[in-house]
Design a protein that fits this description.
The chain is α/β, with parallel strands linked by helices. It is 46% helix and 12% strand.
Length: 557
Amino acid sequence: MCNENDLLKEGVDYPLVCADWTEADFDDEATLAAKEAFGIKFLFPWQRIVIANIMDAVRAGNDEMEQSELNDSVCKGRQIVLLPTGAGKSLCFLTPALLLDGPTLVIYPLLALMSDQKRRMDAGHLEAVEFRGGQSAEEREENFRRINEGAKIILANPEVLQNEGLLSRLCTCGIKHIAIDEAHCVSEWGDSFRPAYLTLGEMIRKINPPVVTAFTATASFTVLQRVSEVLFGGEAHIVRSDSDRPNIHYTVVNAYAKKRAAVRLALTEQKPMLIFCGTRKNAEDMARELSVCCGRGKVRFYHAGLSREEKKDTEKWFHGKTDAIMAVTCAYGMGVDKQDVRTVIHYAPPPNVESYIQEAGRAARDGKIGNAFLIWGPDDSHRFSLYPKGSRQRAVFDFAESQTCRRQVLLDALNGEQAVCDGCDVCERGKPADFADDASFVQDFVLRNRKCMDREEICENLLENLNRRDVLRFGMRIWEEDDVVELFTSMMKEKYLRMCLWPWFRKIDCGTRKSGVPQKINRKYLSKRWRRMAFWENRTASFLKKIRQGPLESLFG
């Protein structure tokens, strides 16, 4: 078992801060090809390093290099590239594909990602073919005909490459480079519900191309080690850059009624917007909810249960909108490149910190400012606190509960360097970053009416009062009965509220925990009857206290 230093010692740690340069300095073959095909002005230094490694390894395979250079270049032909979301990983394998004399096989985890990349390649006039499940024999024969005629890119997923007949045909196509996008899925999914990822190492050995590159934006040391073992037998060259995205502002929203918090953020934050909902049902429910508030033509949902045509239609719709909201699952979480997403909301927390960084990284890929909100409830806090310290799952808890810089928590989880925070709610200490004022509102209402109402009466009155408050804020009623019950139940569970016994049987009062609200009766809101009851409550408590303190004679002496 190798340690972290052994795994990274052959790598290149290149910061995302460029030295002084002029455009003319980079007019080499790769830059010119990228300019012509994709309309970019230049390649970043980290892109140039990866591309140079790929081209050197191909030259080594073609015996075009001196023996002194050969071993190092062959080593660089098996590389893992860690670059932040939005750093242009796709150009690192698309640009060499323009220059190589054979096709590049690109392996994607999701059909949505394949479709998105196919759309971009078509726009750049880069001929690509797709292999996916459900294709007819005629479709596959057409793909191989196009490969023989010079198609530069072959798109596939791990499952389709388990087809022995297809793999045998691909071995004869002269593939020069295999690129594995979102390579952290080898660890996250290969050991659970997608075992096909664990067969990629054998697939690589059968095709035996000069270069194999695994790309990811998020990988802790444990994940990195697993990827290296599965794909490269534990020996990989690492090209690693800082995974921080300084243009994303991180905020944790503490909420008892999480759906109401998501609706309010959807009404107030910038669009286009992605809302990660965890499950298909939650995504559909959220889309229906927001359609009522924001307009039916502005909201859609996306998950793996949609048909291929529905997915393509939804992707096309979202790419063409500037005010769209899409409720999604992790099926839309990786690599789909809409540059101008301004806000990402996590209604359901992701399973681990890598997934959170990956999904939050969908925001602001155009380099402008974006926002990432994590809606965090008491149940989330309890569930993630059960994971052992130092685990990838516990890092989500550390991020959400942190009293220090949230950005640094994310970087620490990925073994990143110390960073100066450009934006998180803890460091800015600006406006309140949560909707815990809902709890204060409820507790204040109960204080004004303590021991006067039972559970049903409290919820009925809160529904009206919360909607009256939010009509003034957002111009509409956004609370429903189920939301109020969820809020009330959470506060009872957290002991902010309690149910009284005799003589105020089943009436609601404030609990033992405080929410920053003064614990006193506001007599302005109490009737004479309830004032008398409060008076006798105090007298009875005083009487019982004296009984406990001494003999009965002291009470009447």
